[in-house]
Design a protein that fits this description.
heterodimer, A: Rossmann fold, 2 domains, four-stranded antiparallel β-sheet, 31% strand, globular, B: 297 residues, mainly alpha, 12 helices
Chain lengths: 291, 297
């Protein structure tokens, strides 16, 4: 469904995506995993033809560079940052996107119903909660019933309850045979949804593995946020990765996913590397038994 | 027209539908949204009210000046409105155009729109058409009320000049909107685009006249050169076109006006309309090229 070959995207001298190739088959679900700045969002935008890039990308066999508009008609996209015209009403917003995709009023209503937003058409977008906006973005992505759904950190702005709802919807879509490509910082999302994980670092694809290979355990996994001394985050991330941990740097501490019975390990690894851990907190626990 | 199936789509129907996604319907969708956004924008409402109030006030003043039964009520009002239009309409159109793409870029909505199955050309054209219709409607409200006042008091004397004023004003608005959109695609932030729009307005309304006067004296320009340089300014082209259509003599514009009348005669209104047409088409084309080539969102 998506074939990327030697995709490279530079911003000036900075290489955001570096010679990256992968294939995503029909009804597959792939997660893009990596720290902030790893190049996940840039890769997604390059795949959709929003950013010009070198290399080749085809969606459903259509070259994105030559026929971007047609290729994008097979993709529903949920962005990382939800940007809507806040003064518009939910009903008119979804009808605008329905018109762009030549979908009828009924089709728009079906998409709203799929995400549980029917009955909210007269609400202004500024009055919607973060979760409702996220579901609206998902409804817009689903409006033309495209075979591929691309999501850029789809639950980043949601609380635990909203996250659960979105993940349930995405699981249903995956089970219905949709092809999913999503960027995520959250192990629970990856474990629930992905069949493969593309691990990215500094724009490069460093691993193409399954979630169970990334978190090789049958026990429960916990995400810890470590608070480190100023300026040591990058070094700490490298040290932890070298020790086999899945790490994310997200601008507010360093998040590391570990089995529940090995929580002290990251702290110990950093102590050996003489990196001070000021504090830590446990963010969430997810079931490691994934199929 | 192929409609995407919602509940039972298959890959083959998706391919068929994808290939027939019409650019025209995307342009119409964008134009409709832009029009709706424009007419609900408080700045747009403010401009419309201001223009309407001023246009009606000018109508009453021109009537008062001719004792309510004076000759050529529409012609007098046309002349009175000319300077008002030259100040307000370019400002309104430049600011509306400048905020269009840069505003979407700043809000982050541009990226989301470009991820849809549309082209950049469709997006820009749709926004241009929507804003152009909104601007023309806004001005027609002012002109309509002004015409109503005049028709009520003096009948239809000189209405043809007034109609031409409305047409050329719309032409001027379209030209300035193109310039505004060009500034918008070149700017990353809406504040910068608006600033550039104000600067362009200042140049066209005030500085170009001063520059032309200074240049004429300094370089001892001949009358045909002054005409050629002057008419490059769309506001001057608009002014001359309106005066010519009032059946008034261009002698009021001095030697340059006399030269234009004698040299071009009946072709002059068409030449002036062409100038406005070029000011509409060229900036819009450049904006389309820049927006299509630039990968920035």
């Amino acid at each position: 469904m998506i074939k990327a070959s030697h995709v490279t995207k530079k911003f000036g001298n900075v290489v955001a995506v570096d010679d990256l190739s992968f294939e995503l088959g029909k009804a597959e679900s792939i997660a893009l995993w990596g720290s902030n700045g790893a190049g996940k969002t840039t890769l997604i935008r390059s795949l959709l033809g929003i950013f010009p890039s070198t290399g080749t990308v085809s969606i459903h066999g259509i070259d994105v560079r030559k026929h971007g508009k047609r290729a994008r008609s097979f993709v529903g996209y949920v962005p990382q940052e939800l940007a809507f015209h806040d003064d518009a009403k939910l009903g008119s917003s979804i009808m605008f996107f329905a018109n762009l995709r030549k979908v009828s009023h009924k089709g728009a209503a079906v998409a709203l119903a799929k995400v549980g937003l029917q009955g909210h058409e007269k609400k202004r977008l500024r009055d919607l909660s973060g979760g409702m906006k996220q579901r609206l973005a998902l409804a817009i992505a689903l409006i033309a019933d495209p075979p591929i759904i691309v999501l850029d950190e789809p639950t980043s702005n949601l609380d635990a309850s909203g996250r659960g709802e979105v993940i349930d919807t995405l699981c249903q879509l995956r089970d219905d045979g949709k092809t999913l490509l999503f960027a995520s910082h959250r192990p629970d999302e990856v474990l629930s949804l992905a069949g493969r994980v593309l691990v990215m670092e500094k724009g490069k694809l460093i691993k193409d593995i399954t979630p169970s290979e990334l978190w090789p355990t049958e026990s429960r996994i916990q995400t810890m946020r470590l608070y480190l001394s100023m300026g040591t985050e990058e070094t700490a991330a490298t040290v932890l990765r070298d020790a086999g941990h899945a790490v994310n740097l997200n601008g507010n501490g360093l998040c590391v996913s570990v089995p529940r019975n090995r929580k002290a390990e990251p702290v110990s690894v950093l102590a050996k590397a003489e990196i001070e851990v000021r504090d830590f907190e446990i963010l969430e626990e997810v079931q490691g038994d994934h199929s | 027209m192929t409609t995407l199936p919602i509940e039972t789509s298959t890959e083959s129907t998706m391919i068929e539908s994808g290939s027939h996604l019409s650019g025209v319907s995307s342009v119409i969708a964008f134009a409709r949204r832009e029009f709706r956004d424009a007419i609900s924008s408080r700045w747009f409402i403010l401009y419309t009210v201001a223009f309407t109030v001023l246009a009606v006030a000018v109508s009453f003043m021109s009537l008062a000046g001719s004792g309510s039964h004076g000759f050529a009520g529409f012609s007098r009002t046309t002349a009175g409105l000319l300077n008002l239009i030259m100040l307000v309409v370019p400002l309104m159109a430049l600011i509306a155009g400048a905020g269009s793409i840069a505003g979407e870029r700043e809000r982050g909505t541009l990226l989301y729109l470009l991820a849809q199955p549309i082209s950049r050309v469709e997006l820009l054209l749709g926004k241009y058409i929507g804003l152009a219709i909104a601007l023309c409607c806004s001005m027609c409200i002012g002109f309509g009320l002004s015409a109503g006042v005049l028709a009520w008091r003096v009948g239809g004397v000189g209405i043809s000049a007034f109609v031409m004023l409305v047409i050329f004003t719309c032409g001027l608005a379209l030209a300035m909107l193109s310039v505004g959109m060009l500034l918008s695609v070149m700017s990353r932030r809406s504040g910068v685009a608006t600033g550039l729009g104000l600067f362009a307005w200042l140049i066209l309304v005030f500085l170009s006249d001063l520059g032309l006067m200074a240049g004429t004296i300094l370089f001892k320009l001949r009358v045909q050169e002054v005409f050629a340089i002057g008419v490059m300014n769309p506001l001057q082209a608009f002014k001359m076109a309106v005066i010519v259509n009032m059946n008034a003599s261009l002698d009021v514009l001095g030697p340059v006006g006399m030269y234009a009348s004698q040299t071009f005669g009946g072709a002059l209104p068409w030449i002036l309309a062409l100038v406005l047409g070029v000011w509409t088409a060229v900036p819009l084309l450049i904006a389309l090229v820049i927006f299509s080539k630039r990968g920035s969102v």
